[in-house]
């Protein structure tokens, strides 16, 4: 993982736009857990 600001951020991000009602809480939690398990720690929460 490359650091620029001293905070380690994954090269890949996960966009959460679909969490706004299209995905239920259980599915959203599973997707979040899968990302974290894969080392992703950058989540785009813009809507």
What's the layout of helices and strands?
Blueprint: E1 13-15, H1 25-37, E2 42-44
Parallel strand pairs: 1-2
What does this structure look like?
This protein has 47 residues and is an alpha+beta fold. It has one domain. The protein has one helix at residues 25-37, and strands spanning 13-15, 42-44. Strands 1-2 form a two-stranded parallel sheet. β1, α1 and β2 form a beta-alpha-beta unit. The mean pLDDT is 85.
Find the structural class using helix and strand composition: alpha+beta
Indicate the overall shape: elongated
DSSP summary, beta strand count: 2
- Fraction of helical residues: 25-40%
Mean pLDDT: 85
Summarize the structure.
This protein has 47 residues and is an alpha+beta fold.
Descriptive key words:
1 helix, 47 residues, two-stranded parallel sheet, alpha+beta
């Amino acid at each position: 993982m490359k650091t620029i600001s001293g905070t380690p951020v994954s090269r890949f991000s996960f966009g959460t736009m679909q969490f706004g009602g299209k995905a239920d809480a259980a599915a959203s939690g599973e997707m979040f857990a899968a990302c974290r398990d894969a080392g992703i720690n950058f989540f785009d929460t813009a809507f």
